[in-house]
Amino acid sequence: MITTNAIAPISSTAESRREIVRLNNVCKYYGQNDTLVRALEDVSFVIKEREYCAIMGASGSGKSTCMNIIGCLDSSTSGQYFLDEQDVSHMEERDLAKVRNLKIGFIFQQYHLLPQLSAMENVMLPMAYANVPNREQKERAVAALERVAMGHRLNNRPNQMSGGQQQRVAIARAIVNNPVMLLADEPTGALDSHTTQEVMELFGELNASGITVVMVTHEADVARNSQRIILFRDGQILNDHLSPEDL
């Protein structure tokens, strides 16, 4: 049974981990007066390093708005957001862009690979923005692609790869800067069930290696691959410590 504001016990090991995400009473409003939309209302939760969390809810529940704030793609109307124990709530866009590139690895439903670039060149892009020397870019890109079993596709362009292979390249791009968090937005939405399971297994492997994973999804079967589920409804958190078995 789902209970509001349920708090699960945290082991002493988990308590010693640093906080990657902390939202304190975050609100996000659009419009005003008669057109006011309360997309998020007093949202608070914490995600610690090495956690694997799914943010789940129906369309219009607030999960996508929350993801945009966690990803430093949007700012809250009120409240505070700490990313890796740094208050990013009121940062200028220029500073937020640096934070996004260095701290967060994004994975999207539609991959967002540049069609004119090879797999290796796509993975090198975040490092180019971070001013990493070119030789190091290539070495790290190859290592990241090998990590997701795409070392044999270094020179292939997106149109020469399947959807699952493109998503693996996108995951390699997301991890190449060693971010503190992987943020995945409906990462299996364009994949068949077999490929979905392969990508979920890869996420599990990355999390087991120490990477914090936050995944936004509306699919219960996908959310069950995580360790903890944060459930949204009508712009508020219905439960922030659901286990996969609770779905």
Automatic annotation (TrEMBL):
InterPro entries: AAA+_ATPase, ABC_transporter-like_ATP-bd, ABC_transporter-like_CS, MacB-like_ATP-bd, P-loop_NTPase. It comes from the Bacteria. It comes from Pseudanabaena biceps PCC 7429. Transmembrane segments: none annotated. GO terms for molecular function: ATP binding; ATP hydrolysis activity; transmembrane transporter activity. It is an enzyme of class 3 (hydrolase). Residues 21-247 form the ABC transporter domain. Its EC number is 3.6.3.28. CDD domains: ABC_MJ0796_LolCDE_FtsE (cd03255). Keywords: ATP-binding, Hydrolase, Nucleotide-binding, Transport. GO terms for cellular component: membrane protein complex. This is Phosphonate-transporting ATPase. The keyword Transport applies.
